[in-house]
Structure to design on (552 residues):
């Protein structure tokens, strides 16, 4: 079960010593792909025209249904236009806010957990490994429900009552899978540093923590950026999940807006199409940028 | 060092009856030799004969199964060994240089004295500048390893080890990855060191270098020392058939 741990320098069964490159096949510099960027690759592979197509659907659909209804194209557009400040200003901004805070907490805890996975202390290593695997392989929605329903809606410290808004609970819930995945990113990146680096640091009498902080992490920092951005894009796309729990973000507010407009079915596609458009417009450049960085960093060494 | 009962009359490195295996594979089967201070020792032998493992054991990069290795009076095969203490006294240079790619040549040299020995920055800078001159890389000191040639990188690696003021230097096939032209510049650097009285243990395939510089040559094959002696007798009067065969192939 812990078989793959053997490849981590310094964590062979006799934990104090390094791996034995004399006996291991020389791996060259495995700098290329520390983490799978499938999502970014997929997203970036779509052409910028997709934006246009989404936009067109948003505007064409009402034209088609217009014939059967008294609700005209202008009506649909005008409705969307009227609600735009609300949907974007209160909705999409909330999605971004959730994604920022989630990434912040997820990264901070994920880095710690990732370092825990390469700890020399067996209990720390096993705990980190287990936590990582648990949250990495759980459905995000289930984690969200657990956090939303078990966390209190306010905390009492002495006389002061600190309310915890729903969106903050959502941030905690989403942080868990992000934490676990960042933990894997860190572990993978540390692993991708050639064993020779550990050995030369060892022979220069560096302590283990000096080796990790001064020599290993600075080298793999760049390699962690593309997968980290990949996870940010995935996370942003996943933020509408929290609408199921009543957090007032773009999907929740779009539905509220449509309800306020008598639930015309003609509004469905324009409103949700517009949300799609926003997410795509936000995440697509990130994906392109991710792949560009990945390409640049993998040439090095 | 803490338990330093070492005196200059004793060997600075003393290897006694060392056994080492990786799982089923026995790599060292009873190796013994002594190195006096200031001596240059060359270990030669076919690939897979355990040469590299042997010198990696001297600074505890590999544990040994049984036997004893004493460096400057410090027992390496001691579970309570302070490895950091040992490694401050033993410098090691690798075949693949293993410079830190995110630091310039000068920073590579300065890191260990500053972080491990906690010396002041000015002190370390002065020392590093001197070492860079010593390995003749004054014009490259602010260059990153990726932009240096193999020979230059290896000389930086030597300077980096020297910055820790070691008593013993280990060289693990340091010229094996270099082209013949650059081999020379690295060997000259080692020669300078040896002439200054540094104790050097080299695993090498450079027979000419061994003949000229070594005080003693050890030939290992399949985990044992087959033959040894000072260069003059070793190269001319090799008795063992395996040594003869090896030398005839290489010379």
């Amino acid at each position: 079960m812990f078989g793959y741990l053997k490849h981590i320098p310094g964590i062979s069964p006799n934990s104090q010593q390094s791996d034995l490159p004399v006996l291991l096949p020389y791996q060259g510099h495995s700098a290329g792909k520390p983490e799978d960027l499938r999502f970014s690759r997929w997203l970036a592979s779509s052409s910028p025209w997709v934006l246009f197509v989404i936009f067109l659907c948003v505007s064409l659909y009402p034209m088609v249904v217009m014939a059967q209804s008294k609700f005209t194209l202008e009506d649909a557009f005008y409705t969307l236009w009227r609600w735009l400040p609300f949907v974007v200003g209160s909705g999409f901004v909330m999605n971004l806010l959730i994604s920022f805070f989630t990434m912040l907490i997820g990264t901070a805890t994920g880095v710690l957990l990732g370092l825990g996975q390469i700890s020399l202390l067996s209990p720390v290593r096993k705990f980190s490994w287990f936590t990582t695997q648990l949250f990495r392989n759980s459905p995000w929605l289930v984690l969200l429900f657990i956090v939303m329903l078990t966390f209190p809606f306010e905390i009492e410290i002495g006389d002061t009552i600190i309310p915890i808004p729903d969106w903050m609970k959502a941030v905690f819930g989403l942080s868990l899978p992000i934490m676990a995945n960042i933990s894997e990113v860190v572990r993978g990146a540390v692993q991708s540093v050639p064993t020779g680096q550990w050995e030369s640091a060892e022979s220069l009498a560096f302590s283990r923590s000096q080796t990790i902080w001064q020599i290993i992490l600075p080298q793999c920092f760049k390699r962690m950026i593309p997968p980290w951005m990949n996870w940010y894009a995935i996370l942003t796309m996943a933020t509408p999940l929290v609408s199921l729990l009543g957090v007032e973000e773009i999907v929740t507010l779009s539905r509220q807006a449509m309800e306020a407009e008598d639930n015309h079915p003609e509004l469905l596609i324009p409103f949700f199409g517009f949300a799609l458009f926003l997410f795509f417009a936000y995440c697509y450049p990130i994906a392109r940028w991710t792949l560009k960085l990945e390409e640049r960093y993998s040439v090095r060494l | 060092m803490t338990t330093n009962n070492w005196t200059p009359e004793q060997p600075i490195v003393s290897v006694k009856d060392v056994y080492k295996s990786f799982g089923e594979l026995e790599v060292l089967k009873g190796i013994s030799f002594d190195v006096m201070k200031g001596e240059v020792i060359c270990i030669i032998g076919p690939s897979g004969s355990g040469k590299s493992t042997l010198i990696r054991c001297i600074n505890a990069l590999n544990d040994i199964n049984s036997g004893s290795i004493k460096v400057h009076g410090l027992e390496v095969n001691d579970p309570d060994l302070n490895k950091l203490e040992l490694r401050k006294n033993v410098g090691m240079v690798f075949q693949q240089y293993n410079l830190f790619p995110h630091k310039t040549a000068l920073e590579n040299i300065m890191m260990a004295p500053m972080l491990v020995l906690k010396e002041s920055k000015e002190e370390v800078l002065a020392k590093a500048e001197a070492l860079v001159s010593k390995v003749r890389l004054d014009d490259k000191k602010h260059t990153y390893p990726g932009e240096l040639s193999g020979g230059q990188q290896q000389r930086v690696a030597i300077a980096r080890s020297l910055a820790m003021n070691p008593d013993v230097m280990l060289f693990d096939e340091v010229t094996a990855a270099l082209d013949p032209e650059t081999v020379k510049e690295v060997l000259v650097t080692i020669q300078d060191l040896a002439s200054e009285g540094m104790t050097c243990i080299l695993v090498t395939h450079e027979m000419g270098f061994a003949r000229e510089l070594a005080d003693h040559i050890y030939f290992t094959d399949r985990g044992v020392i087959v033959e040894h002696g000072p260069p003059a007798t070793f190269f001319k009067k090799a008795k063992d058939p395996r040594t003869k065969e090896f030398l005839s192939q290489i010379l």
